[in-house]
Specification:
The protein is α+β, with helices and mostly antiparallel strands. It has eight helices and 20 strands. About 25% of the residues lie in helices and about 30% in strands. It is elongated. It starts with a strand and ends in a 10-residue tail after the last helix.
């Protein structure tokens, strides 16, 4: 067992949340690019094992709801958006933006109050639609700390899949040792990184390098003049699955967000998002776009060296050393997250519910047992 200021941390096989495919943390997860959902359009979405319908109302706002109509289970993405509501195609049941049933056109009976749909908070930022895996969002969408209070420009980078859990992918950026073996250019510049942890709140932890550029070569001596203090290398992690990286000289910082989500089989689906501050005017726009493309090149360099490792790793921190303190602190922080009643995490409850449900043929058979004189035929 490993101990540090954040508490006791066991190996990944003994953790409650970290690197556990059956535990989904409550937080923001990327869903799909904003441009892929038009006004008045509905789409099916399977997000981390949860079946949803996502649609954009006439007011331009996006909603996310349970996928299946509570009447007979038709998928609502087959229906149509009406105003800011959505109508099922099967029997035309209509649901308001908050999930309330508001119309059954072929019935004069009172609307069944139980026939409401569960909804989830939705936000749009960086050209991406995000969904909160809980009843009420507790934090804003993950952001770059340095750009929190300024207008930004963003560009979607690479989509990727890694054959390990998002928690393990997140660890990579705070694993100072691997820069010496996997990223030779970074090794020459970074020297010996010392990543200091800062718990910002329950959902967010930051790591900031505190060591200067080593002056061990003529090139490094020149580069060191671009920094007034330590080499800029900062990470801000949210929910253990999404993080931002800030690096670069004092006059030009590059910002990359790594938005990750787990798959039911324990792998990672990811999206890189490149972010820079918005600059005024046409020239400022072109300058910002240029910085975003330069940021993509920086991100591609670091991603390239790690790809092979993520395809075969079986992560277990069995023999930690002093240089693993940032990783240990991250694991401790992840263990404090709230588990959502969502998709993969909720599956045991769903399976139990299904075992308790009675399918139509079984229901007919039971009725025959109770009333053997009734001739039900093949009717359901």
């Amino acid at each position: 067992m490993v101990r540090n200021q954040g508490g006791a941390v066991a190996s990944s096989g003994e953790t409650r949340i970290f690197n556990r495919r059956d535990q989904i943390v409550e937080g923001w997860y990327f869903a799909l690019p904003s441009k892929d959902l038009r006004r008045g359009q509905a789409k099916p979405l399977r997000l981390i094992g949860e079946e949803l319908v996502i649609y954009r109302g006439e007011d331009g706002e996006t909603r996310a709801m349970q996928a299946y109509c509570p009447h007979m289970g038709a998928h609502l993405a087959e229906g149509r958006v009406q105003g800011n509501s959505i109508r099922c195609m099967f029997h035309y049941w209509k649901f308001a933006a908050d999930g309330r049933l508001e119309d059954i056109p072929c019935s004069s009976s009172p609307l069944p109050r139980k026939a409401a749909l569960k909804t989830w908070p939705v936000a749009e930022k960086y050209g991406m639609i995000w969904i909160w895996t809980g009843p009420e969002a507790r934090t804003p969408v993950p952001y770059v700390p340095e750009l929190k209070d300024v207008e930004t420009e963003a560009m979607l980078g690479n989509r990727f899949t890694k054959a390990c859990h998002p928690n393990v992918v997140m660890i990579n950026a705070i694993d100072a040792q691997h820069f010496f073996s996997v990223h030779p250019m970074a090794r020459r510049l970074a020297g010996k990184l010392r990543l200091e942890p800062y718990d910002r709140d329950t959902h967010n932890i930051e790591f900031r390098n505190s060591t200067p550029v080593p002056r061990n070569s003529l090139l490094n001596k020149v580069i060191a003049k671009l920094y007034r203090g330590p080499l800029t290398y900062w990470m801000s992690y949210w929910f253990g699955t999404t993080g931002s990286v800030t690096l670069g000289p004092d006059f030009l910082h590059f910002h990359i967000i790594f938005a990750l989500r787990p798959t039911p089989d324990g792998q990672t689906e990811g999206q890189t998002i490149l972010v820079t501050k918005r600059r005024p005017g046409p020239f400022g726009y072109l300058l910002s776009r240029g910085f975003l493309f330069a940021t993509k090149m920086v991100g591609d360099y670091f991603a390239k060296g790690d790809t092979k490792i993520f395809q075969t790793i079986n992560f277990q921190l069995k023999t930690p050393i002093a240089e693993d303190q940032a990783i240990i602190r991250f694991i401790a922080h992840t263990e404090k997250q709230t588990v959502a009643n969502w998709g993969i995490s909720a599956r045991p409850q769903v399976e139990a519910s299904r075992r308790g449900a009675i399918a139509a043929p079984e229901l007919t058979a039971r009725r025959r047992e109770i009333h053997p004189s009734e001739d039900h035929g093949d009717r359901v």
